[in-house]
Specification:
The chain has about 170 residues and is of the alpha/beta class. It is built from 5 helices and 6 strands; from the N terminus they run βαβββαβαβαα. It is about 35% helix and about 20% strand. The protein binds flavin mononucleotide (FMN).
Length: about 170
Amino acid sequence: MKQLVVYSSRSGNTKKLAEFIFSRLDGDKEIKSVDKAPDPAGYDMVAVGFWFKAGQPDPDSQKYLKKCAAAGGKLFLFATHGSAANSDYAAIGMNRARELAAGAQIVGCFDCPGEVSAKTLENAANKDPQPVWLKDAPAAKGHPNSDDFYKLAEALAEAGLVEKRQPPEKGMFV
Ligand SMILES: Cc1cc2nc3c(=O)[nH]c(=O)nc-3n(C[C@H](O)[C@H](O)[C@H](O)COP(=O)(O)O)c2cc1C
């Protein structure tokens, strides 16, 4: 099975998830940033990672997700965001990604908070109105953390992309 991990990452959070996924996949695999990503049609499974901007996948990832939709293969979606884990806001962003990729076979999804830089926090605080996610952003500090990687490993197993490791212990990922 030819597998490709594609990520868009401005400050490194989503790249960490991408590298973790890449390290867990067995067999034929490649990892590329979205600006260098090949046509998804050449792969059996593509994992696409993005960061949230304006409540949805960042613009480069939006374009790539549309290509994945056209290719119609297996797709795993992953993301980081300043908003809280399991928040409605995060769910809306992931649903937007699903819509963009409609046509692909989505085998799994994972998203978690990602630390927001001080400069971004300052810029967002100066906006009027302030973005909805700003109130959650301080809690994203330190994410993705070992608990997030643990959950990502579970999501990959759930999607059938990796074998379940026994016993999957919390704290084993750093
Ligand atoms: C310009 C900008 C806009 C952002 N907009 C959102 C947003 O709409 N919703 C959100 O949850 N997080 C937002 N964030 C926070 C990032 O999505 C979050 O920090 C993410 O982990 C960054 O990923 P990266 O390190 O891979 O670039 C924004 C960050 C930036 C820099």
